[in-house]
Amino acid sequence: MATAELAGKKRTGWTWSLIRQGWSTVLIILIWHMIATYGPYPRFMLPTPLEVVMRGWHVASSGFLWEQILASLRRQVIGFGLAMIIGMSLGFILGISQKARTAMIAPLRMLYPIPGLAWIPLAILWFGIGDESMIFVIVIAAIWPVMFNTISGVDAISTTHLRAAKSLGANWWTMFTRVYLPGSLAFSITGMRLSFGTSWRVIVGAEIIAASTGLGYMINNARSILRGDELMVGMVVIAVIGYITEKVIFDYLEKATLDRWGMRAAN
Amino acid sequence: MVGKTIIEAQGVSKVYGSGQEAVVALDDISFKVTEGELVCMLGPSGCGKTTMLNIVAGFETASSGQVLVGGNKVSKPAPDRGYVFQDHGLFPWLTISQNVGFGLLRNKTMSKEQRKSEVQRYLHMVGLSDFGDVYPHQLSGGMRQRAAIGRALAPDPQVVLMDEPFAALDAQTRYAMQIALLEIRDKSHKTILFVTHSIDEALMLSDRVMLFSRRPGRLRLVESIKADHPRAPNDPAFSELKDKLFTILQEERQIDIPDNQTMVKAS
């Protein structure tokens, strides 16, 4: 490219971009392979990258992997969905109504520092072992980021916008759908991202402790039968799902809303 | 020609705080605005002219006295008093068409097509016919203010209240917008109450100028301007009035400076 030459042979193009981003990962995998192959650790503890891939293929083709993925995803979707609905509703109520906020903020602030996993024994006590207790734990853990961020989002809406809407005769429904909701969206989406991350981490922990299906179960089970390769397959899948959701869902959501409206939180 | 009184302020006072820290923003303001007039409220910064505008709008309440618009006492914001903010106040998450049509949403009897054609009419009136589908962040400052004016006009208000709407624009754009406002006024026959701290702007636009003193804001001067449009503030015919306004404004701005310091000309 002529520009590349003019700029003193600066390397452009997507191949170079891929290389710049990817070389450290490749290096890590190589180092891992070296240590696994020539190091002092038994194979079940530190399998080589290739063995992990092969085991991954095995559990995928046998259907086992998909069953676990679906089990975890189902709980995640239901739990996260409920957390969002409850969290955002509470967020708007407490954000818009000063009275509600003064009344309820204290007990909520006391509940939220309790880590999600600490709710598991209570969940099992109430719901027994099974999906209900898993979902309960996800909801309890994931409500907080989305709720507090939505409250901040409502606070951040400028007085000018609220006044403009009122002077244009907006009723409460229009205020909510056309002002409060979109106006607080930047904060809400951040809250949703955090909530999703929280709930995904919690589900895996919860499954390790108290489930017989799911990715958390798969990891723990793999440990108990000394299959380090299968354990790592589970971890890789957990990471990939988390990454894809972030990229596909939340990045897309931001693009379709904040970017389109020129409202990136940086202002 | 005696017209109908549309806005009437009766002994309006506004006090913030109480006791020792009480701040009197407005002190016993009374005036009348006739239908179809363009009246400017002029004064130094902090003189309470925007507070007065906000009381007419219903965003703030008077501590004593009252404001009548169309014979009705004002208490809350409503679409019969359109408002154009200094920073346009357009909703960034709505297109220009959706912004302009916002005040029409409450009209249950209007069909979607009717609303669409009304919006087009006002877009055309403010010279933004081709920009209905863009978002505010894609427009220049002058265009945003035009959209804001269109938005305030669409619900067919009794009066249009404007708070230094052109203050943030550069000189050329500002001049163009003043001309545009006069055209819009001719087409729509609206009564306009306009806050400014620029003498030139007041001379350009007003049928009457109301000059406020510094805090506590009192009406120091009310002058009619009968000259035809378009006007050039540099026109020698205005020099007497301009001097008068300038001198009084300077007086009002300098009172704060203690005697033992040199008099500094305010901007």
- Identify low-pLDDT runs of chain A: none
Number of helices of chain A: 12
In angstroms, what is the radius of gyration of chain A?
A: 24 Å
> Helix share of residues of chain A?
over 70%
Key descriptive features of the protein:
heterodimer, A: 267 residues, mainly alpha, MetI-like fold, globular, B: 267 residues, alpha/beta, Rossmann fold, four-stranded antiparallel β-sheet
Question: Can you describe this structure in just a few lines?
Answer:
The complex is a heterodimer of chains A (267) and B (267). With 267 residues, chain A is an all-alpha fold.
List the helices and strands and how they pair.
The complex is a heterodimer of chains A (267) and B (267).
Chain A (H helix, E strand, L loop, with lengths): L1 H5 L7 H25 L10 H13 L2 H33 L1 H14 L8 H8 L3 H26 L2 H9 L4 H12 L1 H26 L4 H10 L3 H34 L6
Chain B lengths: L4 E12 L6 E12 L3 E5 L6 H9 L6 E6 L2 E2 L7 E4 L11 H5 L11 H14 L15 H13 L5 E5 L7 H18 L2 E6 L2 H7 L2 E5 L6 E6 L14 H16 L13
Parallel strand pairs in B: 3-8, 3-9, 6-7, 7-8
Antiparallel strand pairs in B: 1-2, 1-4, 4-5, 9-10
Helix pairs in contact in B: 3-4
Please describe what this structure looks like:
The complex is a heterodimer of chains A (267) and B (267). By secondary structure, chain A is mainly α. Chain A has twelve helices and no strands. Chain A has two domains: 2-38, no CATH class; 49-261, MetI-like fold, CATH 1.10.3720. Chain A has helices at 2-6, 14-38, 49-61, 64-96, 98-111, 120-127, 131-156, 159-167, 172-183, 185-210, 215-224, 228-261. The longest helix of chain A has 34 residues, at 228-261. Chain A is globular, with a radius of gyration of 24 Å. By secondary structure, chain B is an alpha/beta fold. Chain B has a domain at 1-80 and 158-165 and 191-267: Rossmann fold. In chain B, helix 3 (112-125) crosses helix 4. At the A-B interface, helix 8, helix 9 and helix 12 of A face strand 6 of B.
